[in-house]
Automatic annotation (TrEMBL):
Cofactors that this protein relies on: Mn(2+)
Name of the protein described by the UniProt record: PH domain leucine-rich repeat-containing protein phosphatase 2
Comp. bias (Polar residues): 1069-1098
Keyword Phosphoprotein among record annotations: yes
Length: 1348
């Protein structure tokens, strides 16, 4: 997978040589600038700028310092100027005094880099060109040039008659006109200008590549133009067709990086609307803004986002203007000449630095719209009192800290007042005179503690969300809509009764009861009082004849009043209350009810749908998750034959009546998870519209008959007890995802797997296996499970990273990435972020440094994909303190965006992350406001994202930054688990509920599944992702296994390991297994290989001698003594027992302990407590080998505890080392080993651990079908033991005293005939091949490391 978005980012790295490295040494103010698009001669520069010795036509590395200016670089290069492009967007010409390298340094510093050396290093990185790039000349964009100006010499004839002859003329299409001029002197000579707006452009069929252009009106003129090529003909036809289709003379030149207006545009005197937004228009020179008065009919001018710095006074000379937009231009004042624009009706000055307005502005009596948002006003300008035509005060995002209603009285023309995001602390209403003209008032996101607006007697709409309101008093004469959520209100006072009120939102307050006047509202249609402290819902309210939507979830309701008569209620939300029953008359009195959510209550039954056999129910969505319902509810559900969505998860259902399910023919989504079902009724096949079936965490043993359904898309039967699957001859083409993880007894045949190969996302179990790599390391005191669910968009934009053994040590790395509406960025982060963290840990051991740099580097590595797209990201790293490797574990968390991490400590949630949404982070809101971003009414930066920090979305810089929040927390024995989730999860599931949920389930995989199911049942429609990490941390972070007595039970069988199977056109890759890690493999892998992995089961039969014989597992804190560590070159992995001298012939009847024979194959288990290095291996090649390697495993606390064993081979009584791959293959990336060369599925795939790469035990030995390796019986003469230089001295010392040490170190798992003899160490410690001992020599405990 390509990890950056620019092809040139890959090849440019070879251009950075020794000369450039020498230049950077010693001075952090030195660096290099990459120049694109020009050829430079390498010449020394007196100003400190140098070029590389090899000139390149497309790229030049220019060595310079932070003091080097553009002028100096141009002199040194004989160039005309330099251009800069940010985030692949607009291109700006640099001023001669600007310093390019300093610009790069400032940009990196604003991103979050703080170390000068790191800033210098990043500035020299070629990948940075996707964020900031310099050009030696302006790049030419043909498409942009075509839309701006078309020009050429063609054969032209005037008029429709034959009187005029064809002649060569220069033809220009610019703006709204077609210009025909002389070839020699197009500007000074005679010109024919043909206005095209409202005219016609037609194909001339009599001539090839000929167009007829006609103007509009009674005196229309016509020109015929004959083009030379088909490409020219199509290009002119396409552009001219756009012009003639316009109803007004509009020219849109926005986002073209223009510095001047094209000269030919000034000949289009019919232009009335000109859009120059997002350019770099100059104030002086030909074609600059100074020439705009030449447009004699111009009415609308947009020059926003042009970095002007000063108000262009020349605009005040265009007296015909009615609309002027100067937003986001860094303006500090408005000139008095603005008074000349007497025709001006709309003036937009948002996003500047204005703090006052000239008095002359008050003379614009036709001005009816004035935008002053996101400036620096500390009060409402007095000049607005004279602007009698202005009906809206738009001053959001200023610094007005108080509002006096007397000011609004004087401005009797104002109807709409917008003062959100101003830091308002009080609204003063000391006047007796009422405010009669204001009908709409927006006071959102301020600091108001109380609000008294009873004097605003004609108020219709009030927005006061996210304040600190404790009291609210309003006039109800004309009130129609009230939005007051996220405050501290305990009551709301409105007088008189608001009979016009239709919509009221009082959610997330402290209401214990609803005011009486609410029940008296005659027109109330929507009432939201969720997340309050309500104990009851008034009967009068529920029986209202106007109420259509009632949301009372997350309160303390114990009962719902009966319905007395038919009501028009359409949506009812009762979730998260204490309801034991619903009113019996609910469904047959509320016949319009289409949505009901009663999840998270204590319901034991649901009311009938009707009083008779015939039901008139129109219910379409029913959510009953998290109650105490049993199978009797199925008979009641039959009456709701219009049901489309049914969630009845996590109840007490033992079965679902088959006859009842068949009647729900319109059902589209069914969730039965977390019950006690043993089967899904076969009548589910009657639900022809069913596209989603979720039934995880049950006791289902038989695969339901659902694959014949024509619209089925998603089937989740994970965490059940499936044993086999009966499939039709073909699968429906609509099936996209099938999850069968957590079914430990499931065995899939080859035919079944081949049939599954066309499913986009297939998740299966790969059984946990004991590998030599695991046996040489201490067990990880954690394991994980995760779950992801698609939302309404049917596109999964959440990805998860999980590595239980990170960097081949007792460390872990977990992450979750949420792209909101894009899936590209989360996938890229999933593939790269683990690698980046590994690299950063090599450079720094300070948590804030390496975590921050990991995020910033990942932001850069997104390349072009990160220019317009972004994602929230959270990364957790479990590790020891670098200064104390044997100390306690520490958890370092970093995040941007809205992904959150919660640690359960002593049964209580501990928040470890920071929510970087504008609504929840006051300091970030102030920072974004200070940088003059436009925040829309839904609190999104430029209307794009609600987050102030993201990875990607670099075009929103400096408003949206990639610098993360970093937090480090020491782990202790009271820490039970860690929960990672995206915004959608924690918006619906509180931290407390999430902790209670995981505590009740314990299994991480099932817990993650349940969290996502709960969020969906609570009303979430977006993508949901949850990752649960179970922690088993002792007091001293020890991971030693306590001694196991002979009478101690062995525990439960090993947990299954999920595997995601995704069809892929690429070559098949090795399967990688790890505890709790989901991997992905190609569908081209043979079915027999897949079957051996998916269908094999770890053996739970343990020899009676195994318990007593197996030594205890040791950790890095309490290691056992190891004699020596060898590195071994490739050798044979298996051997013939007939040639072995271990005292056991092939016909012996009694096997030795620790020796497992299989015909001519022999495997010896050698106990190893602790070693300096790890031997890494992959999964076994067959079910038999899997069972053999798992024999002797121990399972405790639901976590796999593997036997410390390594498979070795012996010839003539000698132990031979297990051979491994090359070092480069062994040290593959931990986050990409499962993804390399494979197509990513719609379902995210967790990257496997680095320590589980497959090791080839015999490099040149062919495989047998049994999965064992065949190798020669005799030892290879070239086999030799190699001691790493760093261990040579240690080995010498150990060999001196091993004669006395060996008897005490013999293990019960070693063959009895090999226990007593000792090594013959008469040879010098060069360890040549003749060091191998004879048949009488002892086999001492060794670890052969293949990763050195």
């Amino acid at each position: 997978m390509k990890r950056n978005g620019s092809r040139s980012c890959v090849t440019r790295k070879t251009r950075f040589g020794s000369r450039e490295r020498d230049w950077l040494k010693g001075d952090t103010q030195r660096g290099c600038v990459c120049l694109y698009g020009g050829t430079v001669d390498p010449q020394p520069s007196a100003s400190g700028a140098q070029t590389t010795s090899t000139p390149q036509t497309d790229l030049q590395l220019v060595l310079c310092s932070t003091r080097t200016t553009v002028e100096e670089l141009c002199i040194q290069r004989n160039g005309q100027g330099l251009y800069v492009q940010l985030h692949g967007d607009l291109i700006r010409r640099l001023d001669p005094a600007e310093r390019p390298l300093q610009m790069v340094y400032d940009y990196l510093t604003s991103m979050g880099y703080s170390d000068p050396v790191r800033v210098q290093h990043e500035a020299a990185n070629s990948d940075l060109s996707c964020l900031i790039r310099f050009y030696s000349e302006r790049p030419v964009n043909p498409d942009q040039q075509e839309r701006t100006l078309l020009k050429g010499v063609f054969s032209v004839r005037k008029g429709k008659t034959q009187l005029h002859k064809w002649a060569e003329r220069q033809v220009i299409l610019c703006g709204t006109c077609l210009i025909v001029a002389s070839v020699k002197d197009s500007l000074a000579g005679k010109m024919h200008i043909l206005p095209l707006v409202g005219g016609k452009v037609e194909e001339v069929k009599r001539r090839q590549h000929c167009l007829m252009f006609s103007s509009a009106g009674s005196q229309a003129q016509t020109y015929f133009v004959n083009f030379d090529t088909l490409a020219d003909y199509q290009r002119w036809h396409r552009q001219a067709s756009k012009v003639v289709s316009q109803t007004v003379s509009l020219v849109d030149l926005s986002c073209y990086s223009l510095e001047t207006v094209p000269e030919y545009l000034f000949y289009c005197q019919d232009i009335t609307h000109l859009n120059l937004r997002h350019n770099f228009m100059s104030l002086q020179g030909p074609g600059s803004l100074l020439n705009l008065p030449r447009f004699s009919q111009l009415k609308s001018l947009n020059i926003s986002h042009n970095r002007l710095g000063v108000f262009p006074e020349c605009v005040c000379e265009i007296l015909t203007l009615t609309e002027l937009n100067l937003s986001c231009n860094n303006l500090h004042n408005i000139p008095v000449q603005i008074g000349n624009l007497q025709s001006l009706q709309t003036l937009s000055l948002d996003g500047n630095h204005l703090n006052s307005l000239p008095e002359e502005l008050g003379g614009l009596f036709q001005l009816n719209s004035l935008g002053l948002s996101f400036n620096n006003f500390s009060h409402i300008p007095a000049v607005l009192e004279r602007l009698s035509a202005v009906d809206k005060l738009a001053m959001a995002g200023n610094q007005v800290d108080s509002l006096e209603l007397s000011t609004l009285v004087r401005m009797s023309h104002l109807r709409n007042v917008d003062l959100r995001l101003n830091g308002l602390r009080w609204v003063k209403s000391d006047i007796l005179e009422p405010v009669t003209q204001v009908t709409q008032l927006d006071l959102r996101d301020n600091c108001l503690g109380s609000l008294e607006l009873s004097s605003v007697c004609n108020l219709e709409t009030l927005h006061c969300q996210r304040n600190q309101l404790e009291t609210l008093t309003l006039s109800g004469f004309t009130l129609r809509m009230l939005h007051a959520s996220s405050n501290r209100l305990s009551t709301v006072n409105i007088y008189p009764v608001p009979n016009q009120l239709t919509h009221m939102d009082l959610s997330q307050n402290l209401l214990e009861y609803l005011p009486d006047w609410v029940c008296d509202c005659r027109k109330i249609e929507m009432l939201d009082v969720t997340h309050n402290l309500l104990f009851e819902v008034p009967s009068r309210l529920l029986n209202s004849l106007s109420l259509r939507k009632l949301l009372v979830g997350n309160n303390r309701l114990q009962r719902v009043p009966d319905l007395l008569d038919h009501v028009p209620l359409e949506a009812l939300d009762l979730q998260h209350n204490k309801l034991a029953e619903l009113p019996d008359s609910l469904f047959y009195k509320a016949l319009n009810l289409k949505y009901l959510n009663a999840s998270a209550n204590a319901l034991e039954s649901i009311p009938p749908s009707s009083q008779s056999e015939e039901s008139l129910s129109t219910l379409q969505e029913l959510y009953l998750t998290g109650n105490n319902l049993n199978e009797n509810c199925g008979a009641v559900l039959v009456g709701h034959q219009n049901l489309r969505i049914l969630h009845i998860a996590h109840n007490q259902l033992l079965s679902f009546p088959a006859s009842k399910l068949s009647k729900l023919e319109l059902l589209e989504e069914l969730n039965l998870s977390g019950n006690k079902l043993k089967a899904i009724p076969s009548t589910v096949s009657s639900c022809k519209r069913l596209h989603t079936l979720i039934a995880h965490s049950n006791h289902i043993t038989v695969f339901p008959d659902i694959l014949n359904l024509p619209e089925i898309k998603l089937v989740d039967l994970s965490c059940n007890e499936l044993t086999e699957i009966q499939l039709p001859d073909s699968l429906p083409a609509t099936l996209q995802e099938l999850d069968l993880t957590g079914n430990s007894s499931l065995t899939l045949e080859n035919k079944t797997l081949n049939l599954f190969s066309n499913i986009t996302t297939l998740k299966l179990d790969q059984k946990s296996s004991v590998t030599p790599g695991d046996s040489l390391t201490s067990p990880t005191p954690w394991n994980h499970g995760y779950s992801e669910m698609r939302g309404q968009r049917n596109k999964l934009c959440v990805s998860v990273l999980a590595v239980d053994r990170f960097r081949d040590s007792v460390e872990a790395c977990y992450g979750i990435f949420d792209g909101d509406r894009n899936e590209e960025v989360p996938r890229l982060l999933q593939c790269t972020m683990g690698d980046v963290l590994c690299e950063e840990l090599q450079h720094s051991s300070v948590d804030t440094v390496y975590m921050c740099n990991t995020f910033l580097t990942s932001h850069r590595k997104l390349g072009m994909a990160g220019q317009k797209l972004g994602a929230s990201a959270l990364l957790c790293y479990i590790h020891h303190e670098s200064s104390d490797p044997a100390g306690h574990f520490r958890l370092t968390v970093a995040n941007v965006g809205t992904c959150q991490a919660v640690l359960c400590r002593d049964g209580r949630p501990v928040q470890l992350s920071k929510n970087y949404s504008l609504e929840n982070c006051t300091e970030e809101m102030e920072r974004v406001k200070h940088s003059k971003a436009i925040i829309t009414e839904d609190n999104k930066v430029s209307g794009v994202t609600c987050c102030s920090r993201l990875l990607g979305c670099s075009y929103l810089s400096p408003w949206v930054l990639p610098k993360p929040w970093v937090c480090t927390e020491p782990l202790c024995s009271q820490d039970e688990f860690l929960i990672l989730g995206n915004r959608a999860l924690f918006e619906r599931v509180t931290y407390e509920e999430a902790v209670r949920t995981v505590q009740a389930v314990r299994d991480p995989h099932a817990a993650a599944k349940k969290l996502c199911t709960l969020a969906q049942s609570y009303g979430c429609k977006d993508n949901i992702g949850a990752l649960v990490v179970s922690l088993h941390i002792s007091e001293d972070s020890c991971t030693c296994e306590p001694p196991v007595s002979a009478t101690e039970p062995r525990g439960s069988p090993p947990a299954s390991v999920p595997v995601s199977v995704t069809p892929c056109p690429s070559d098949s890759a090795n399967l990688s297994s790890s505890s709790g890690v989901i991997t992905e493999f190609s569908s081209e892998t043979s079915a027999s290989e897949v079957g051996s992995e998916a269908g094999s089961t770890a053996s739970d039969e343990h020899p009676s001698s195994g318990i007593a014989a197996r030594p205890e597992r040791r950790c890095s804190l309490h290691p056992a003594t190891a004699l020596c560590v060898f590195q071994r070159q490739p050798s044979c992995a298996t051997f013939s027992s007939n040639h072995s001298d271990n005292g056991l012939d092939s016909d012996d009847e009694v096997p030795l302990e620790g020796v497992i024979s299989n015909g001519s194959k022999l495997e010896v288990e050698v106990d190893i407590h602790c070693c300096a290095f790890q031997l890494r291996s992959g999964p076994p090649e067959s079910p038999k080998e899997l069972n053999l390697e798992n024999r002797g495993s121990d399972y405790r606390n639901g976590k796999v505890r593997r036997q410390n064993s390594v498979v070795v081979s012996a010839t003539n009584g000698c132990l031979l080392a297990v051979c491994g791959r090359e070092i480069g293959d062994l040290k593959k990336s931990p986050s990409t080993s499962s993804l390399f060369g494979k197509k990513l599925s719609n379902g995210s795939v967790v990257a496997p651990e680095d320590s589980h790469n497959l090791i080839e035990v015999a490099l040149e030995a062919p495989k047998k079908k049994s999965g064992y390796f065949t190798a020669p019986a005799q030892q290879d003469p070239e086999d030799q033991l190699i001691v790493p230089p760093s261990l040579e001295q240690e080995v010498r010392e150990q060999l001196k005293g091993q004669t006395t040490l060996l008897p005490g170190l013999s293990t019960p798992s070693t063959p009895t005939t090999l226990k007593d003899p000792s090594w013959d160490h008469s040879q010098p410690p060069a360890f040549a091949s003749n060091l191998v001992p004879g048949p009488a020599a002892i086999v001492q405990q060794e670890v052969y490391d293949t990763a050195l």
